[in-house]
Structures are given as C-alpha cells and as structure tokens.
Amino acid sequence: MLKPLGDRIIIELVESEESTASGIVLPDSAKEKPQEGKVVAVGAGNVKDNGERVALEVSEGNRIIFSKYAGTEVKYQGTEYLIIRESDILAIVE
Amino acid sequence: MLKPLGDRIIIELVESEESTASGIVLPDSAKEKPQEGKVVAVGAGNVKDNGERVALEVSEGNRIIFSKYAGTEVKYQGTEYLIIRESDILAIVE
Amino acid sequence: MLKPLGDRIIIELVESEESTASGIVLPDSAKEKPQEGKVVAVGAGNVKDNGERVALEVSEGNRIIFSKYAGTEVKYQGTEYLIIRESDILAIVE
Amino acid sequence: MLKPLGDRIIIELVESEESTASGIVLPDSAKEKPQEGKVVAVGAGNVKDNGERVALEVSEGNRIIFSKYAGTEVKYQGTEYLIIRESDILAIVE
Amino acid sequence: MLKPLGDRIIIELVESEESTASGIVLPDSAKEKPQEGKVVAVGAGNVKDNGERVALEVSEGNRIIFSKYAGTEVKYQGTEYLIIRESDILAIVE
Amino acid sequence: MLKPLGDRIIIELVESEESTASGIVLPDSAKEKPQEGKVVAVGAGNVKDNGERVALEVSEGNRIIFSKYAGTEVKYQGTEYLIIRESDILAIVE
Amino acid sequence: MLKPLGDRIIIELVESEESTASGIVLPDSAKEKPQEGKVVAVGAGNVKDNGERVALEVSEGNRIIFSKYAGTEVKYQGTEYLIIRESDILAIVE
C-alpha cells in the first residue's frame, strides 16, 4: 500500500453525483467547489518547532470534503487515489 | 453533520436584507463588504509551535460578521453552508 | 454590540476636518495619510507560539490615528464603524 | 558515494512504464504527475528552532513516489540520480 | 501627545541642509538616501514568540538617520511628525 | 584567509570536465545542473530561535556538489573562490 | 559617531583597485560582484524569539567583503560610510 509522508493524506474519490450518499450536494456557483472523498491512509504529521510530531485530525475511513483543485493523482493496483495535504481538507462528514 | 478541521468554521448564511435582524446594515461603498452568518460548527483549532492546540474564539450559535469573499460553499442535506477560517471572521454580534 | 476577534479593533471614525478636536491636522501630501478614530471595542489579542494570548495595547475609549486605507466598514444599529487590525494603528492620541 | 545534506534525499529513478513493478500506474491527466524512485541515500534532516535535528521519514531502500518536476539530476559513477527534498516526496510504496 | 504603538517611533524631521548640525552630509547618489530626525516618542516594542515585549533600541531625544521613503506624516498641534518603524532606522547619531 | 559568515561556505571550483575525478558526470539536460567544488572554509552557522548556533554539516576539505547558479565569485591571492550558503549544497562526495 | 541599530554595520569602503591591499581581486564576470570594506561600528544584534539578543559575528576593525549593491550610503563629518546588514557580509578577510 502507499504510506503518505508528513501531513499528507491519501484519499479515494467519491464520485460527485448531484446528491452524494452522505447527503452533500456540491452547488454550481462561481466560488471554489469542494469535492468528497474517503481517507485511505494518513501521514504521521509534521514536526513543530518544539521537535514534536503533531498527529493529523483525520483518520483512515473518514469521509471528507476537500478543495477540488488540491493534490496529486496516482493510480495504484488498479485504483485511482489522490494525495493531498491535511490543510486542503475542509471538513469531516460525520 | 460536518466537522470542520483546524481553524475552520462552518456557518449558515444570514440573508443580508438592507437591515438585518441583529441591526447590522451593510453599507454600499467601495470598501470590502462584510457579511453576516451563524456559526454551526467549529474546528478544534490549530497547533502552535509549542505543540498546543489553541481553541477558537467563536462557538456554535454565535452570530458573526465576516469577509464577504472568504470561504468555500457546500450544500449538506438541503442546507447551504460556508466553510471559512477563523481569521476571516471580523467580529461576533453579541 | 460587536466584539472583534483576535487583534481586531472596532473604531468610530472622527470626521477629519482641517483641524480636529485633538489638534491633529492631516497634511495634504503625496505620502500615505493617516485618519483619526475612537476605539469602541478591542479583541482579546492573538496567540503567540508559546500558547499565550497577548493583550492589545489600545483600550476602549482611546483616540487613535491609523492608516487611511485599512479595515472593513460596517454599519451597526445606525452607526458606522470600521474594523481594523492593531497593526494598522499608528499611535494613540493622549 | 554521495551523502545528501539536510532534508535532501538521493533517489534512483524507476523508469515509468505504463504499469510499474510496484503496481503504480501514473495517469495521463492535466494534474501534476508523480514519478516513482528508489531511495539511495538520505540526509541527516533539518534543525528545528529548538536546536534538534529531525530525522527524515524515508530510509535507504524505500520505494517512493514524488513530484515529477522536483529535484536536480546528477550522474555519479555511471548511474543517474536525482537529489530531491523530503517535502517533494508524496508517499512510500510499502 | 502622540504615543506610538509597538515598534513605531515618532520623529521630528531635521531639515537636511547640505551639511547638518550633527555633521552628516547626505550624498547625492543613485543609492537610497537616508534622512535625519529627532526621536520624540517611542513605542513599547513588539512581543516576541516567547511572550516578552522587547524594548526599542532608540530613546526619546536620540538623533537618528533613517530611510527617506519610510513612514507616515502627521501634523499635531502645529508640528509635523513622521511615524516610522524601528526597522527603518539606520543608526543613532551620538 | 577568508572566513565566511553564518551559514556561508567558501569553495574552490573543480573544473567540470565531462567526467570529473570523483566520478561525477554532469548531464546535459533541461534541468538545473549541479557543479562540483572543494570546501575551503566554513562559517560558524546560523543562530536558531532558541539562541543556539547550529554548526554546518560540511567541513573543510569536503568535496561537494552544489547548485550551479548559486553564490558570489571572489578572487583572493590569485585563486578564484565561490562563497555559497549551505542550503545551496546538494550533497557531499564521500 | 554613528551607532548602527540591530544587525546593521557601518563600513568604510576600501577602493577596489584591480588588486586590493589584502590581496582580493574582484573578477569581472556576469555574477554578482562583492566589494571590500572596513568595519567602523557594529549594532547590538537582533533579538531572537527566545528574547535574547544575538551578538554579531563581525567586530570593529574587521576587513570584510560584502554584496556590492547592499546598503545605504551616508557621509558623516567628511567621510563616506555605508550602512549594511550583517546578512550582506560574505566573509571576513583575516
């Protein structure tokens, strides 16, 4: 499997139909549109200036919404993933 | 529900009539115009270089005014929300 | 009332006549012109990397001069205010 | 051999065939494309503001994917290497 | 009087004749030209990340030279002042 | 002799023939090309925010490769040197 | 005399003949050319985030080479000086 570094997160995209499974509808407006995904793997977090590594707020399995134009696409063993930074995640869908 | 990350906040927009319920009138001038909203959910805050997470100043239920062009729109279970960072909030209406 | 966040301050503008009440005359030159105001509310201050919140240097009631093009206008219960950051304040008029 | 400085890493490129040995297929899209490599040497890490040097997350022998346009090429004793910073590494292939 | 905030300083300009009282002659070259002034009031200094406020190096009464295009002009009770940041001061004339 | 300041390093250039003594061949590609040099003197290092000076990773006598367009040339007692910052050094040739 | 602030240094220029007294010859190339000078006064240094002031590495009397386009010229009691920041000093000539 892929293990992301630092504050990076690997997500599987959730196809954005007009109304997604979790009830999010992404509006069609001039503002930046978020996209939905499922967290597949999380990095260990970045190290702060006090020398401590800060764990990420998201965990494997979380459904998240994130900035649409963030990240790098990669296909691994037949599945497409997106590697993004935690700062590009807007919210967890609970 | 949606749980925002870090210093992010989810707000429900308050339609800006000429004179809002809380008494704020948004002037029509050349300067940047603020907008009114109601806080629906707040993130856990960012982590400082000493390793501590700093709680946000706003809480669920607060009425706030914020920079008009800030944030990302998202529609969740039929309601439209805006996800913004605490730094885009100008003031709490008390 | 409005409660500003972080290092923000709410001020009421003092109309800049040629010679203001406090004796300040704003010269008409090519340089950036400051403007006079009265502090109506102050934020709790920002949090430093050591986790401490640093109180602002200005207090409610202070007369200040600030950078003319700073801030966001807002009208609240019939009065116009300006929300600015403490860093845009040049000096307190004592 | 070459010993990279700070947060730098020396990698040997893995020729990106359509489907690589580790099962990664790099999609042909408009987004930034990652590339695969094998870590040959790692730096000692950077020094944080508390004076401590933070070890890198990758080790010699790791297979990694990284941003395609990152790094500096160098040929040493007949082999071509790429010297990149750890922040350009997206994930370790485990 | 005016009390400057943070690392700001209020100075009275010293008219730059060809040779000033303190013996400084400002050369007429292509490089940035400094200007001479007298410190009238100093701010309390900025707060560092460890929470301490650092006192300024200049004091009331110091004659200084500073970057010519720095600062904001203000006229107060008939006298023209310039409000600048300590970082724009080049040297104290002793 | 010349004593570099902070994180600066003085190097003597190694003429980049097609194949250098240490076995490095600098490829002729579109990417940034590194250059080889020998460390002649190193600075004492920079001071971190905790007040400690961090020693450099390179020492006198090291053979290094560095970014080609980095640094400032200086000729001293008949020999040409280049003064660069440690961050411009890519790796030590061991 | 002039007392520089913070990390500033006052130097007297050493006329750069083709071969200077200390043996430095400044090559005529496309790269940035350094210039030679003699330190006349040094500032007390900057304050780090831990609240300590860090003394400069150069002292009065040092001969230094520095970036040619750095600094601000000033003429004081008949002599021309240049006020530069320590970070613009490349090396001390010992």
Automatic annotation (TrEMBL), chains A, B, C, D, E, F, G:
<keyword id="KW-0963">Cytoplasm</keyword>
<dbReference type="GO" id="GO:0051087">
    <property type="term" value="F:protein-folding chaperone binding"/>
</dbReference>
<comment type="subunit">
    <text>Heptamer of 7 subunits arranged in a ring. Interacts with the chaperonin GroEL.</text>
</comment>
<dbReference type="GO" id="GO:0046872">
    <property type="term" value="F:metal ion binding"/>
</dbReference>
<dbReference type="Pfam" id="PF00166">
    <property type="entry name" value="Cpn10"/>
</dbReference>
<dbReference type="GO" id="GO:0005524">
    <property type="term" value="F:ATP binding"/>
</dbReference>
<dbReference type="InterPro" id="IPR037124">
    <property type="entry name" value="Chaperonin_GroES_sf"/>
</dbReference>
<dbReference type="GO" id="GO:0044183">
    <property type="term" value="F:protein folding chaperone"/>
</dbReference>
<dbReference type="InterPro" id="IPR020818">
    <property type="entry name" value="Chaperonin_GroES"/>
</dbReference>
<dbReference type="GO" id="GO:0051082">
    <property type="term" value="F:unfolded protein binding"/>
</dbReference>
<dbReference type="GO" id="GO:0005737">
    <property type="term" value="C:cytoplasm"/>
</dbReference>
<keyword id="KW-0143">Chaperone</keyword>
<dbReference type="InterPro" id="IPR018369">
    <property type="entry name" value="Chaprnonin_Cpn10_CS"/>
</dbReference>
<dbReference type="InterPro" id="IPR011032">
    <property type="entry name" value="GroES-like_sf"/>
</dbReference>
<comment type="function">
    <text>Together with the chaperonin GroEL, plays an essential role in assisting protein folding. The GroEL-GroES system forms a nano-cage that allows encapsulation of the non-native substrate proteins and provides a physical environment optimized to promote and accelerate protein folding. GroES binds to the apical surface of the GroEL ring, thereby capping the opening of the GroEL channel.</text>
</comment>
<comment type="similarity">
    <text>Belongs to the GroES chaperonin family.</text>
</comment>
<protein>
    <recommendedName>
        <fullName>Co-chaperonin GroES</fullName>
    </recommendedName>
</protein>
